[in-house]
Amino acid sequence: MEVGDGVDSESKSQRRVGLLYDERMCKHSTPDGEPHPENPDRIKVIWNKLQAASIPQRCVLLDAKEAEDKHILAVHSQNHVNLIKNISSKQFDSRRNRIASKLNSIYLNEGSSEAAYLAAGSAIEVTERVAKGEVDSAVAIIRPPGHHAEEDEAMGFCLFNNVAIAASYLLNEKPELLIKKILIVDWDVHHGNATQKMFWKDPRVLFFSVHRHEFGTFYPATDDGFYTMIGEGPGSGYNINVPWENSQCGDADYFAVWEHILLPVTKEFNPDLIIVSAGFDAAIGDPLGGCRITPHGYSVMLKKLMNFADGKIVLALEGGYNFESIAKSMLACVEVLLEDKPILGSSVAYPFESTWRVIQAVRKKLSAYWPSLADELPEELTNRKAPPAVYVPNSSSDSEAEEDDESQKVSEHLEEVLQDIIEPLSKLKVAESNQDHAACNSNTWRSELSKVDIWYAAFGSNLWLKRLLCYIEGGQVDGLQKPCVGSVDKTSPKEIMWKTFPYRLFFGREFSLSWGPGGVAFLDPESNSQDKTYICLYRITLEQFNDLLVQENHEGYVMSSPLFDLTALNSVTVEEPHSLQVRLEGWYRNVVYLGKEHDIPILTMTCTPSEIEGFKSGEHALCAPAINYANMIVRGLVEGKQLSQEEAMAYIQEASTKGL
Ligand code: X5A
Ligand code: ZN
Question: Which parts of this chain are annotated as the region Disordered (predicted)?
Answer without folding.
Answer: 385-410
